[in-house]
From TrEMBL, chains A, B:
This is Sugar phosphate isomerase/epimerase. It holds the Pfam family AP_endonuc_2. The lineage of its organism: Bacteria, Bacillati, Actinomycetota, Actinomycetes, Propionibacteriales. It comes from Kribbella caucasensis. Residues 22-254 form the Xylose isomerase-like TIM barrel domain. Gene3D superfamilies: Divalent-metal-dependent TIM barrel enzymes (3.20.20.150). One of its GO terms (molecular function) is isomerase activity. Keywords: Isomerase. Signal peptide: none annotated.
Length: 271, 271
């Protein structure tokens, strides 16, 4: 229970104040936040709301999207990430989750796109370090490699992160994106102190038409969530475990119902 | 041109005799065959048709599907693979493509499922060797890990294949399934003489509702097909390059049109 964190994106249409109140009432210690609704609510106001409820922010999602077709776009994205670092610092979290971005339009240059991610990290890492925030590189499932995230495995995320101090750049272990990988347990061990968060949802089939919304509730799918959590623990990770599910049916259900179900399933399948 | 092979599954509804005639007329040397239509046509009859047209069979697709919920199902699948080896031998090809199968219904035991694949290979490899056929383990894209193929990367395929003599068990390098992997070029080098085939199609977005049919024509998507082909060559592979595209629009188009387009695109983007 003291490691559980519900990312607000799991109950997308539930107002922040309700998620915070429910988390407080359930005796939770953590909450995961999402940039857009927090910007809308007001970053400092959200920081106060969360702190007043006795909660800490497990992570802010998300920055990144470093791949770009020209220098102007690239600069704009770097500046946006600088703002994201500031927001994370204001919210009192040391984890800013980064999704790297897909191939630039019309490009097949995967190495080049990955180099853009590395260059973005290089520009931002010292600033993040100054603000007490770690840039947490998240590998997305390989089905998103072309259009969303050219970092497609934990090994690939670590290849990037290890070019920087561990205090500045780490990685996310998201079960949904990584579970299929025959190498994942070895890579979790390799990750060690770089692990910034363990995120959970489940793999269910068939994928929906919009495969961004294909994540299932823990226990409904194929992933050995507890085993992966134990592997993170064995690698030295002792921080929050964040539930992050994008699923239209869950979004359409009453917030409190999803909140209760997620907590119960976490205890059954992850803790 | 002397390495080009069209897998008949690319023109699924075109009769075998038409694909063979078109391949012969185009001066091709190879053709890729699919088990079900060949069984329907008659295996020995197909062998004669192909030989009379001066063609050789680049591969037979496909056996495998080793994962099972009980021993009776497992035995049945082993026997079916024995038949597939016989069919490959009759057709004169030394490559039988194997898709390993997904998680057994209701199971989350990925290691256990992969062990079933290893056990299946162990039972079949000596028999395949006797018949002059190599079992070619194909990693499918990780989005198929749960329901179709628990081998999700070239590294994972090699972990299995390397437990057996290279004359008996090899791997397929299919660009569609492997292109996203930051480790793929290192794994192709590792594969070396185990490479049984290089297969091409392209990654296009968005995925269709049935993601089994999401493959695009070479040149329409994100994959560096020539670079991957050159990597296979550098690893010592000099065999056929097989076009294998599952795409409803292409299946609905006239066979000769797809045949001509695939050959042109191969020359532009792969050869």
């Amino acid at each position: 229970m003291n490691r559980y964190s519900l990312n607000q994106a799991t109950t997308k249409y539930w107002p922040l104040e309700d998620v915070v109140a429910a988390s407080n009432k359930a005796g939770l210690y953590w909450i995961g936040l999402w940039r857009e609704p927090i910007q809308e609510y007001g970053v400092e106001r959200a920081a106060k709301l969360v702190a007043d409820a006795g909660l800490r922010v497990s992570s802010l999602c998300r920055g990144g999207f470093f791949t770009a077709t020209d220098e102007a776009e690239r600069r704009m994205k770097i500046e946006d990430n600088r703002r994201a670092i500031d927001e994370a610092a204001t919210l009192g979290t040391d984890v800013l989750v980064l999704v790297s971005g897909g191939l630039p339009a019309g490009s097949r240059d995967l190495d080049g796109a990955r180099a853009m991610v590395r260059d973005g990290l290089a520009e931002l890492a010292p600033y993040a370090g100054e603000r007490g925030v770690r840039l947490a590189v998240e590998a997305l499932h390989p089905m998103f490699c072309s259009d969303r995230c050219v970092v497609s495995s934990l090994g690939g995320a670590l290849d990037l992160a290890e070019q920087f101090p561990a205090t500045q750049v780490g990685v996310i272990v998201d079960a949904y994106h990584l579970w299929w990988d025959a190498d994942v347990y070895r890579q979790i061990e390799r990750a060690g102190e770089r692990i910034c968060s363990y995120q959970v949802s489940d793999w269910i089939v068939p994928l929906p038409v919009d495969n961004l919304l294909g994540r299932g509730m823990m226990g409904d799918g194929s992933i050995e969530l507890r085993r992966l959590r134990e592997a993170c623990d064995a690698a030295g990770y002792a921080g929050p475990v964040e539930v992050e599910i994008f699923n239209q049916d869950l979004w359409d259900a009453p917030g409190q119902e999803v909140f209760d179900l997620a907590l119960r399933r976490y205890l059954e399948h992850v803790a």
